[in-house]
Amino acid sequence: MVIRYDVLVIGGGHAGCEAACAAANMGAETCLVTMDMNKIAQMSCNPAVGGIAKGQIVREIDALGGQMGMVTDKTSIQFRMLNRSKGPAMWSPRSQCDRQSFIRTWREHLDATEHLDIWQDQAEELIVEDGKAVGVRTIWGAELRGKAVVVTAGTFLNGLMHIGRRMVPGGRIAEPAVEHFTESITRHGIRSARMKTGTPVRIDRRSVHFEDLTRQDGDERLGGFSYMPTPRQKSQLPCWECYTNATVHDILRDGIADSPLYNGQIQSIGPRYCPSIETKLMTFPDRDSHLLFLEPEGSNTNEMYLNGFSSSMPMDVQLNALRQIPALRDVKIYRPGYAIEYDFFDPTQLNHSLESKIIGGLFFAGQVNGTTGYEEAAGQGLVAGVNAAIYAGKDATASSQTDYFVMHRDESYIGVLIDDLTTKGVDEPYRMFTSRAEYRILLRQDDADARLTERAYEMGIAKRDRYDWWLEKKEHIGRIVDFCQSAPVRTKDVNSKLEHLGTTPLRAGCKAIDLIGRPQITLPILADLVPELKNIFDAIPNRTDEIIEAAEVKMKYAGYIERERMIADKMHRLENIRIKGRFDYDSLQSLSTECRQKLNRIQPDTLAQASRIPGVSPSDINVLLVLLGR
User: Which residues pair with 4 in a beta bridge?
Assistant: First the structure.
């Protein structure tokens, strides 16, 4: 049986769901191939979305017309804005979600998407003809044909799970691994390797002594990810904190000989920034304790997630160690933690569109590109889905990478993520941090719609209602800023109030915007000093707090934002200098040997991309500039 589509998406995780929705919303007839329709967008690890830099990615996905932000807001059981004590470039939203509700809500979004079908099956072989991906064959004998194929297989490709010395093939606990599919790709010259990740024990809340834990509530102000009006749960559930101790550590150390991470059983690369508890002990031997978070899996379940206790130690070692924590002295578990090894493909073999440089019409997104995290996967999925639809719309003859949807490093964290992957590659599971973005003042969580929504609407990714809401929001922000730039402030009206706030009184009159730069002054406080501002606030029909905050950040940090924009604009000059196909690098003896090797392997599109490749020095870039001048 042969079924034909424009775009095939292989894998129903976070990358696959965003890719399928994006391609379908672009008008491409799309099929999402998943092994289990009841585990769409399964949260394999922590049922939480967002966090440091990850929250910015989710807001960007939403601004682009993606689904993750809306699904998260509908299923959130605790919301927190992290890093509020720091500058707005560091603020990062995070939501704990109801795991089962998250899956159901994602399924509802998929079912409501036009041009999108779901096929429950397992892809076994990629079909390649004349150097182009044209479909897949499944284990049940179906042949699905498409003009473009997006691979988002997560941890399932030759997945192998580990608990102690036991090894079981699988892509997730109780779910089978996908065999042969990797080999159907690598036989065409695409390189693959192995990575490792893990997940903690799941705990029965009825066995927990909560009186021995520290309660952690969400924010009083219920925030969210989506810029669109989205229904949100009002009831918030707490998380809880506790610590390991020396006895816990002793039990784990005694069992280290049976740890697959240290007995030679696991050879692949594991995550640096979300290590297992046994890795923490070996890396920080002098630490007497490590912080753990006990987090709810949902509103109607007793299952809880022990964040910080990822492990692949034998079951009895995990359980005995946990019972040395006072709050968990009588603990019962649903399942132990485990590690999993899986195949990924070297992302330097991809263009910035996430299309393979080797097989036309083949796109990769998510953990198969060497990343970790739902948010990083979803961001890649959206970009891959959009570009697969563009490729399919050109009848598989897209003339160059300039035809595709590509974001720059000063435009989004997703742009930083994809540029890092395709330019630098990975030697461990890649996780996004604010420190990876050199323009993070420009890439704040509050202004993703300002950066991306208009462009997304013009491309057809974002719908009209989202675009209209952005225009309305933009108009309200402009009114607030214009008022503050022109409204006079007299010393006799404000000085007593300024002194009460602990800030220096005015020596002469000024404009309202001159006060907003003071750390003690927020826009609501300014409205008390300048009452006419309240009238502008009252005229905002909805999402007032969000609009006021966006206007305040725009004014308070205007100098920093402008300075960073100037730096980014300078770098754009190198972004516009295209070098792909213009040099025979092996013949350029004035370049270092390492530089020639790296440029040959990665084949960067632009001079700016070349400058970010490890091993390419500034002097090498100068050589290329001179040669281009000739």
Answer: 145
- C-alpha distances in angstroms, 217 versus 70, 80, 90, 203, 292? 22, 9, 21, 20, 15
Q: Residue 580 to residues 95, 586, 621, 623: CA-CA distances in angstroms?
A: 42, 14, 14, 15
What is the CB-side half-sphere exposure of residue 207 using CA atoms within 13 A?
A: 16
Instruction: Report the SS3 class of residue 473.
Output: helix
The whole-angstrom separation of Cα 383 and Cα 22 is: 8
For residue 335, what are the contacts with CB-CB under 8 A and spacing of at least 6? 173, 201, 202
> What is d(CA 445, CA 82) in angstroms, rounded to the nearest whole number?
11
**Angle of helix 54-63 relative to helix 374-393, nearest 10 degrees?**
30
What's CA 271's distance to the chain center, in Å? 15
Distance CA 478, CA 379 (A): 29
Nearest CA-CA partner of 228 in 456, 7, 409, 414? 456
Return the structure tokens found at 455.
């462009």
Read off the pTM: 0.93
Residue 89 φ then ψ, to 5°: -65, -20
Length of the chain (residues)? 630
Q: Give yes or no for a contact between 277 and 310, defined as CB atoms under 8 angstroms apart.
A: yes
Other C-beta atoms lying within 10 Å of the C-beta of residue 91: 21
10-residue averages of pLDDT along the chain (630 residues): 96 98 97 97 96 97 98 96 91 96 97 98 97 98 98 98 97 95 98 96 98 96 89 86 97 96 91 88 94 97 97 97 98 97 97 97 98 97 98 66 87 96 93 91 95 95 94 96 94 90 92 92 92 92 90 94 89 82 89 89 88 85 82
Could you tell me if 270 and 252 are in contact, meaning their C-beta atoms sit under 8 angstroms apart? no
Q: Which two tokens stand for residue 249?
A: 């550590």
Question: For strand 148-151 and strand 362-364, is the pairing parallel, antiparallel, or unpaired?
Answer: parallel
Encoded tokens for 209:
């002594």
Q: Distance (Å, rounded) from C-alpha 373 to C-alpha 203?
A: 22
Q: What is the pLDDT of residue 397?
A: 46
Alpha helices in 125-225 (DSSP H): 181-186
**How many CA atoms, within 13 angstroms, populate the side-chain half-sphere of residue 467?**
11
Residues 442 and 568: beta-carbon distance below 8 Å: yes
Structure confidence at residue 314 (pLDDT): 97
How far, rounded to the nearest angstrom, does the alpha carbon of residue 31 sit from its chain's CA centroid? Answer: 23
What separation in angstroms does the CA of 155 have from each of 159, 447, 536, 578, 584?
6, 33, 51, 35, 38
Cβ atoms within 10 A of the Cβ of 563, count? Answer: 11
